[in-house]
Amino acid sequence: MHLTEDQLLPPGRSCPFCGSHERKKVFILQKDPDVHLLSCANCHAASASRMPTAETLSEYYKSYFSGKKQKVTFDRPERMAEHIFCAAQKHPSVKVLHILDFGGGDGHISLKLAEKFIAKGTGEVHIVLVDYNPDMAQSDDRRITMKRFPHLSGTGTQKFDFVLASAIIEHIPSPAADLIRLLDALKAGGVFYARTPYLLPFLRIVHHFGFTLDFKYPGHVHDLGPDFWNGIVHKLPLKGDYQVLKSKPSIAETSFRDHFLKTARAYALKSPWYLFGSVYRLVGGWEVFIKRLGVNERQQQSAGSEK
Fold it and tell me: Where does 78-306 sit in CATH, by number?
């Protein structure tokens, strides 16, 4: 969508994540009226200089899942469930597991994740899905329950073993309060997972050569890569202590079976990172696993830093 003046909010002065005013233009998302991508010098988030109005976003997302059998933005949700499950293998086994799926569409990914935990011996899995989408995946297994709220406030003060925020943070114009609440919703030892676009390195290259690249604005209003995710727990006013477990190029959203060429391109772009590390950044997307530390882990971490 090319937004008109009446579809846009006034320009924001501060970073939507950390509140810093130290931001610089790095790319133009649209002209007339101009909307720029601004990079924050403090938390390293890149955000649109002007956000769409709530009415504009409502219209934009009205047909977001139109024609899709499963209301998720991921080919074959069982792939993502397996991906998260493998990363969570060191998580202490519990008889009852609680999962918060924020912006998870119809909840297919969290449902498949629950099935994997049940298969490995977890007694019960209770899923809370937060999404505007009215559809909700169903399970025939009575050991798995799922309930849905349209807003994050519906979860109250409940704590969770896993909090999933896959491909959602980039869509929220004012995300700081939600991100703080998601991290705070973790139990001690709980794990937060997020997946976001990371296109800034591509944007800088195409801008240098005078080309354009579809940023998917106004659907995407933020671009969040390793510099952001590796440091954000120190930039937000969080009450607990957190540790980044993994921070790396995100799993490919598409599958070879459903979108062969697009998936092959994604793997070709991401693969060099595993050879060259942080010096290579043309990966297209980023993911992070963040753990909330318990008392013993905080003490161990503190003792380690003193040594």
Answer: 3.40.50.150
**pLDDT recorded at residue 93:** 65
Query: What is d(CA 199, CA 203) in angstroms, rounded to the nearest whole number?
Result: 6
Instruction: Walk across the sheet containing 144-149 and list its strands.
Output: 144-149, 124-130, 96-102, 160-166, 186-198, 284-292, 242-249
Q: Tell me the pLDDT band of 65, cut-offs 50, 70 and 90.
A: low
Q: Residues 11, 14, 19, CA angle at the centre, nearest 5°? A: 155
ω before 33 within 30° of 0 (cis)? yes
3-state class of 86 per DSSP? helix
Question: Is the CA virtual torsion 298, 175, 18, 250 positive or negative?
Answer: positive
Between residues 203 and 223, the one the model is more confident about: 223
Query: Strands (DSSP E) along 124-241, which ranges?
Result: 124-130, 144-149, 160-166, 186-198, 222-223
What mean pLDDT is predicted for residues 258-279? Answer: 93
Q: Where are the domains of the chain?
A: 78-306
DSSP three-state, residue 192: strand
- What values do phi and psi take at 276, rounded to 5? -105, -10
Q: What is the average per-residue pLDDT within 50-73? A: 76
From 71, 67, 74, 18, select the one nearest 47 (Cα to Cα): 18
pLDDT value for 59 = 85
| Tokens linked to 269 | 């772009």
pLDDT digits (tens, 9 = 90+) for 117-134: 999 889 999 999 999 888
Would you state the pLDDT for residue 81?
94
